[in-house]
Specification:
There is one protein chain. The chain is about 65% helix and about 0% strand. By secondary structure, the protein is mainly α. α10 (about 185-200) packs across α14 (about 250-270).
Length: about 425
């Protein structure tokens, strides 16, 4: 490990950092300024870091921020704690953290990461290109973070954009044993379900319009966006634009839970004696988990399509719709369109992941030479484009699936009434 600088040099360095963070030049660094500094430096959770990290021992005025001396005291405490964390991860005590030590630390927490993922973590901190992290690089990267132990460091890496969030587009998130024991996994699933419910409710009119046009548009009945919206509003009013949204939201929770549990079991079966899964193996596990979840909740997909296309007064509710389908068409009707639905998972997931990785790596090669983190806006753009490409490739199968789901006496009557 490189020799530490003298006390005078340390105070100069801390003074420069204080001046950089003190944006309003009032001689104090408050929570807002520390939050802005964390965000500017690529911090994981600025709110958490600012609220927990701005209260060093001896702070006489916690609500008013820190003056220079209090800020220096705070940094002294932070450096001492960071030095202990550095030594904990530096398993061979050679003064540097390498790729294998990052992998070993994750493995001790119950999380297996690939060599490529560990290298991306290392690249995000390695400023001198040595493929190792020395004390100065470690200190400068985490100085403003409220990391209390090794687990905090690993969770920061795991949930930051350094690790491939692109795989989460098709592969469920992985949780450590500690996260499973503490209930973190279900909290994240619930948060995802709530976010999905809000987004689906917001886009429900467009989703119903899509299904309406997929089923009713033809050579003799050319529907456009305005014409479709006008027909739906004339038939059932503005509130009819949200038909089918209830069950669309309702199926989020069971689908997410089943996909997560199936992914864990399939991943364990594929892994065997391996310590970690490659991206391709995780893609296969994620696709199989998605197919498993779709198989189990598919009757809800059929009900969603029928409720979306229903005329005013056609069904009394979800149970009445299910009973009429069962009575008139039999149980097999609940799996109409299942085959094209499952087949559509493969091209969508494969193209989505492939395009995402290609775009992200191309951007890193062209514009990012010092960091493996392209930033949230770039990742969002890559995810949007890759998802669009996947949707376009799998759309013919989605069209066939929706047409098959809508087949039946009720759908034919509905189509006759709308044409």
């Amino acid at each position: 490990m490189r020799g530490g600088p003298g006390e005078a040099e340390r105070r100069q360095r801390w003074g420069r950092l204080f001046e950089e963070l003190d944006s309003n030049k009032d001689g104090r660094v408050d929570i807002r300024e520390l939050r802005q500094g964390l965000a500017r430096l690529g911090g994981g959770d600025p709110d958490r870091g600012a609220q927990q990290g701005i209260s060093p021992e001896g702070d006489t005025d916690p609500d008013g921020g820190l003056d220079l001396e209090e800020f220096i005291l705070y940094l002294q405490e932070r450096e001492q704690r960071l030095l202990l964390l550095f030594h904990s991860l530096d398993r061979n005590q050679d003064g540097q953290i390498d790729v294998s030590e990052i992998q070993q630390s994750f493995r001790a927490l119950g999380i297996s990461i690939s060599l490529e993922q560990a290298e991306k973590i290392l690249h995000s901190m390695d400023r001198d290109g040595t493929m190792t992290i020395d004390w100065q690089e470690w200190r400068d990267h985490f100085l403003l973070h409220s990391l209390e132990n090794v687990e905090d460091v690993l969770y920061f890496w795991k949930h930051s954009t350094v690790l491939d969030i692109g795989e989460c587009l098709t592969v469920p998130d992985e949780f450590s044993e500690q996260e499973k024991l503490t209930g973190m996994w279900w909290k994240q699933l619930v948060a995802g379900a709530v976010a999905g419910a809000v987004s689906r409710t917001g886009t429900a009119p467009l989703d119903r319009l899509k299904v309406f046009m997929q089923v009713h548009a033809s050579k003799t009945n050319r529907l456009n966006i305005l014409g479709g919206l006008r027909s739906m509003i004339q038939e059932g009013g503005v509130h009819s634009l949200w038909r089918g949204n209830g069950i669309n939201v309702l199926k989020i929770a069971p689908e997410s839970a089943i996909k997560f549990m199936a992914y864990e079991q399939i991943k364990r079966a594929i892994r065997g004696q391996q310590e970690t899964l490659h991206v391709q193996e995780r893609f296969v596990a994620g696709s199989l988990a998605g197919a498993t979840a779709q198989t189990i909740i598919y009757p809800m997909e059929v009900l969603k399509t029928r409720l979306t296309l229903r005329r005013t007064g056609q069904y009394k509710g979800l149970l009445d719709c299910a009973w009429q389908i069962l009575e008139r068409e039999g149980p097999r009707a609940f799996y109409r369109g299942y085959l094209p639905n499952v087949l559509g998972i493969i091209p969508y997931a494969g193209i989505d992941l492939a395009v995402y990785e290609t775009l992200k790596n191309r951007w890193l090669q062209q514009y990012s030479h010092d960091s493996a983190d392209p930033g949230i806006l770039v990742l969002l753009a890559c995810g949007t484009i890759s998802s669009t490409c996947g949707q376009i490739a799998s759309y013919p199968l989605a069209l066939v699936r929706t047409r098959m789901q809508a087949q039946g006496p009720a759908s034919r009557q509905s189509e006759a009434g709308n044409t």
